[in-house]
Amino acid sequence: MGTFSYELRRTLSSKTVIILTAAVIAISVFSAINTATSSPGPIGFNNSVAYGYGSNGSYSIVVYIHNGFGQPIQGSRVIVGLGNSSTLTGTSDAMGYANFTLSGVNSTVIENPSNSTQWGLPFNYTTSRGMVNFGMLDMYSNYSNPYFFSISYSYKLPNGTLYNKSQDISRYSMNSVSVPNQPTKSALDVLYEGDVSQGSPEVLLYVMPVNGTIEQNGYSVGYSALNISEQNMTYFGTYRSFSHVELNPKNLTGSNVNYYVFALFTPSGKLLTSLGLAINTPEQGNQVSEAFYGTQMSIMGLFIPLIAAVSAYATYGKDKTLGVLESVLARPVSRKGLILSRYLANLSAVFAATFVAFLVSSLVYGIYLGNRIPADTFLSGLWSLFAASAAYIGLVYMASNFTKSSGALLGFAIGIFIVFDFLWTFAGADLIPFLITSLLLHIPSGSLQYVQSFVDLYYISPAGLPNITSLIITGSAYSTIYARSSEFVQVGLTYFNVILIGILWSVVPLVLSVIAFVKRG
């Protein structure tokens, strides 16, 4: 035990091991954060909302430009086309608004639908993003109410019956936006559709948690079927004098509830608008596994074997080739005990770096994606890299028994990394297996023999074990080497094989190294 403790401290204090360990942990964490915060959703894209208000010959059109977080976009060029083919051009300001004012609004620009006295302004607008949007903006007879637009109109049915209607339309709207750096979580964007120069009057926001499916008469229905009122909801906050406000209600996430209904009320209790919002939608375990194997394992499968090979050279191989292999111990140690203690110290240091990188990556995914790395993914990935590390350390130890030059041994360590790791499983879509299978053996792509060849070649290289576990965990063998999941067992993609081959790669080089070191001594 004393021999191992000494060798472990010696290995962990090696500058080479420290630098490589710090590098792989830092790269893994950076990659995890980069993967977890990337999203195909609205982030990075400009979205827009258009509304208008006015009457008696004057009309205002407002186009609000914002990104996927609800944050305003300044400098976006907006072109508005009206029903009479005239156009207006403007640019969004620092608050994200492009404002247009029409004067002398008359029948040439207002559409009067058949059998109706409701007037509307047909329009389209284009932003710098290039998307053309179409709509019909109502002409309001009264816009003095700060909370509502008031509309009065009439329409006639085919039987001649005339209906006169008046309607109040809320000046407020709520939309779901993404939370910065947390793309799987949603925030609330409240927009005031009125004269933004005057700000907005006071409004009260209430919230209601929704458990499970909302059902009515045996059918699943939307949240609008709920009794939305201040009495049935919980007060969230009061807001005033804003054009728009983003709220990140992450503090509501708890237990099994992740869906909430938000409602905006006037101080007198009149409902303005409501929105159902999934605050936290965690990634499923298989999605986290795919993200992990698509980034972390590719990087760690490249660097962990390099750390193993270089650390084996720095802490054992170099001393062996220079003839200064010795250990300062409190009691004598056999040659077998010496090589085993250094081997275990090397392997423990590399395994510790791998475990820490896995653990921190899992915590990052838990924070950003709502789910940590699943246990089967964590353990299988850890085992495959452990076996690969053991193999590379054993190979360098074995080579040191037959090499007199430290430079030649270092070249061997780097060489097996380049051939069996970089070129075998990383560069050019697994370059060497591809060249052997396609160009040397002439096996047609897409055939079962093609798949079998790739899998066999993965097992031949210790660095191929992470590729095997990736194919099994993610089920991505079909897109990678055209294997259907039903054929996995047939071609050898099984955990049994991963464990068996991993044991062989861990034990055989070590046994040969020990035998050579003891006998040649």
Helices and strands, with pairings:
Elements: H1 2-12, H2 15-36, E1 47-55, E2 58-66, E3 77-82, E4 87-91, E5 97-103, E6 120-126, E7 132-138, E8 148-156, E9 162-170, E10 172-179, E11 182-192, E12 203-210, E13 215-216, E14 219-220, E15 234-239, E16 244-247, E17 259-265, E18 271-278, H3 285-294, H4 296-322, H5 335-369, H6 375-400, H7 406-426, H8 431-440, H9 448-460, H10 465-474, H11 477-481, H12 488-491, H13 495-520
Helix pairs in contact: 1-5, 2-4, 2-5, 4-5, 4-6, 4-7, 5-6, 5-13, 6-7, 6-10, 6-13, 8-9, 10-13
Describe this structure in words.
This protein has 521 residues and is α+β, with helices and mostly antiparallel strands. It has three domains: 2-37 and 284-520, no CATH class; 40-139, Immunoglobulins (Immunoglobulin-like), CATH 2.60.40; 180-281, Immunoglobulin-like, CATH 2.60.40. It has 13 helices and 18 strands. The protein has helices at 2-12, 15-36, 285-294, 296-322, 335-369, 375-400, 406-426, 431-440, 448-460, 465-474, 477-481, 488-491, 495-520, and strands at residues 47-55, 58-66, 77-82, 87-91, 97-103, 120-126, 132-138, 148-156, 162-170, 172-179, 182-192, 203-210, 215-216, 219-220, 234-239, 244-247, 259-265, 271-278. The strands form six sheets. A four-stranded antiparallel β-sheet has the order 4-3-6-7, with no helix packed on it. The chain is elongated.
